[in-house]
Write a structure and sequence with these properties.
This protein is mainly alpha-helical. Helices cover about 75% and strands about 0% of the residues. The protein has eight helices and no strands. Helix 2 runs parallel beside helix 4. The longest helix is centred in the last third of the chain and has 24 residues. It starts with 11 loop residues before the first helix and ends with a helix.
Length: about 180
């Protein structure tokens, strides 16, 4: 594996203080990258996290108090993996389980809009009384009895208006489906 380069923007003093820690990480980069790979499952992500590990080590003020630099490196690596997963879950590139819904397809949306236009057209062609009865029953959920009382019709007349309106809609939709 290629050796990792140290950022030139750090001062010599910072490099000297952190040199044992960085040297340890570079000397054990294969095992640390394997650790990252097991944690994230992607080779490119593992390499990126190893670079972040080196940058963190370089930016640390003083590392002389660290007794076991490799164990410290694994602890830092673990935190980087956790941060990586948090960030990935915050902004996922794609959904792991995409919702399956026929309502969301473009085809179904277009078909719905076409049917809606047909319904609107048929409703405008209906006699006013039939349209009023149908809208009250189907859209507003009024009972036949309520409609008959408010319009002064028999319940049988209300029933026939609804039935004829449904027949008109069915005929228009069947013409749409066969064309």
């Amino acid at each position: 594996m290629p050796q990792t380069q140290i950022s030139p923007s750090l001062t010599n003093e910072q490099r000297q203080q952190n040199k044992p820690l960085v040297k340890c990480f570079i000397a054990n980069q294969d095992t640390l990258k394997s650790f990252f790979f097991r944690g994230v499952g992607e080779g490119a992500d593992a390499d990126d996290l190893f670079q972040k590990l080196l940058m963190k080590a370089l930016k640390m003020e003083c590392t002389t108090h660290i007794d076991n630099p490799l164990a410290y490196g694994y602890r830092m690596a673990h935190h980087l993996i956790v941060d990586h997963h948090r960030e990935k879950n915050k902004y996922p590139e794609s959904l792991e389980y995409e919702p399956e819904s026929n309502d969301l397809s473009l085809e179904n949306l277009l078909e719905y809009e076409q049917r809606l236009r047909i319904y609107q057209q048929v409703l405008t062609q209906m006699p006013a009384l039939r349209r009023d009865v149908f809208i009250r029953r189907r859209l507003h959920g009024e009972s036949r009895q309520q409609i008959s009382k408010s319009l002064g019709l028999s319940e049988e007349a209300v029933k026939k208006h609804i039935s004829r309106a449904m027949d008109m809609l069915k005929e228009a939709i069947s013409g749409f489906i066969t064309s």
